[in-house]
Design the sequence.
């Protein structure tokens, strides 16, 4: 895979982004990522997007190409939920290695905070697939309430409590404070966490990701085209995926899912081991998602992720830095684009551009994304050059 490089990235400040339409945000990010890569629109021969909920285009990538004024041979709109960033980069890798493209522009952005109301967004989130229309929705669950059910099952199985959930929220916030693009940057301690109101017992407000405008763009290209912008190229060395269910009622377990399978497949492809990962970016739309995904990925024993977070094992100076940007819980949750921030942070760390967040001598990163309620998982392994 070392012929395939991430050569350019772009990311906005997450939160409310005024004065832009969703398509204009896609354009801004795409052009900034190309500039970062030292490439131009005429170099792009494939565009990949994830259709935002804040825009109504059915074939979004074609509409985006038209908006940019280009007509690349390939313009695809993909689906994969939070696993989509890994899917899109791996698809770009396949195009480049197969010879159908040399430069792929990936843009994933959404504006649920500015374009949708919060309540409308939560309803759309449930209606779009994670809540089964026949055997779940009639009983009234929302996505937060289903994650709350998972959290209660985890607590019952492992004798966990709110200090385990709170440790995740506090960990992410401490990292986000150091990132200028993060949505949530006010300090948080356990008292602040405990004072936040209940959303879906046992999940409090600060166990839930904020609704954010945001997203990112990534340029994937050949080794000979990378580095033209003066930025250090980052190699794509492995990808792996898994799917166990879509609806929670069909999940084989409430407390163990498929993230580890995806990582195993990525490591096998890259011929690497878990011990070689220097920074891990884990999908954490809710605090319980972080606990379960970290354990599924093999970074903590079952039921022990909370204590590992409390003990500082996943801080910047811990045994495995996790979510050095603040994760979805504090960096931001930009709707359909949630998860691409993990990929951007991985690239920034491998470039050595993370400032106060920088992990010394970071060489290999793992980026994890999750679609639905632990349904689909995508893992990318990246390496600095």
Sequence:
């Amino acid at each position: 895979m070392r012929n395939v490089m991430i050569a350019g990235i772009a990311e906005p400040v997450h939160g409310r982004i005024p004065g832009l339409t969703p398509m204009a945000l896609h354009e801004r990010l795409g052009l900034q990522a190309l500039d970062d890569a030292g490439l131009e629109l005429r170099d792009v021969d494939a565009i990949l997007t994830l259709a935002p909920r804040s825009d109504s285009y059915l074939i979004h990538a074609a509409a985006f190409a038209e908006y940019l004024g280009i007509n690349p041979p390939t313009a695809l709109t993909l689906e994969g939920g939070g696993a989509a960033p890994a899917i899109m980069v791996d698809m770009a890798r396949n195009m480049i290695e197969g010879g159908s493209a040399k430069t792929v522009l990936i843009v994933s952005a959404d504006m649920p905070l500015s374009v949708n109301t919060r309540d409308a967004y939560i309803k759309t989130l449930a209606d779009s697939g994670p809540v089964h229309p026949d055997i779940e929705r009639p009983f009234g669950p929302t996505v937060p309430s289903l994650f709350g059910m998972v959290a209660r099952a985890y607590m019952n199985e492992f004798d966990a409590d709110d200090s385990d959930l709170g440790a995740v929220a506090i960990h992410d916030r401490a990292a986000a404070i150091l990132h200028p693009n993060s949505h949530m940057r006010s300090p948080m301690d356990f008292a602040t966490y405990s004072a936040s109101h209940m959303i879906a017992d046992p999940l409090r407000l600060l166990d839930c990701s904020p609704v954010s405008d945001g997203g990112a763009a990534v340029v994937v290209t050949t080794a000979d085209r990378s580095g033209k912008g003066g930025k250090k190229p980052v190699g794509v060395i492995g990808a792996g995926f898994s799917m166990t269910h879509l609806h929670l009622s069909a999940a084989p377990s409430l407390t163990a899912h498929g993230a580890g399978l995806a990582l195993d497949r990525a490591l096998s492809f890259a011929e690497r081991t878990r011990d070689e990962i220097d920074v891990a970016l884990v999908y954490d739309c809710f605090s319980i998602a972080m606990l379960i995904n970290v354990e599924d990925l093999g970074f903590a024993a079952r039921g022990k992720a909370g204590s590992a977070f409390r003990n500082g094992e996943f801080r910047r100076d811990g045994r495995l830095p996790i979510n050095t940007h603040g994760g979805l819980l504090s960096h931001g949750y930009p709707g359909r684009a949630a998860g691409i921030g993990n990929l951007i942070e991985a690239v920034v760390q491998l470039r050595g551009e993370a400032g106060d967040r920088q992990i010394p001598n970071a060489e290999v990163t793992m980026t994890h994304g999750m679609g639905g309620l632990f349904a689909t998982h995508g893992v990318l392994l990246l390496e600095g050059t």
Summary: The mean pLDDT is 95. The two ends are 13 Å apart (CA to CA). The longest strand covers residues 234-243. The CA atoms of residues 239 and 279 lie 16 Å apart.
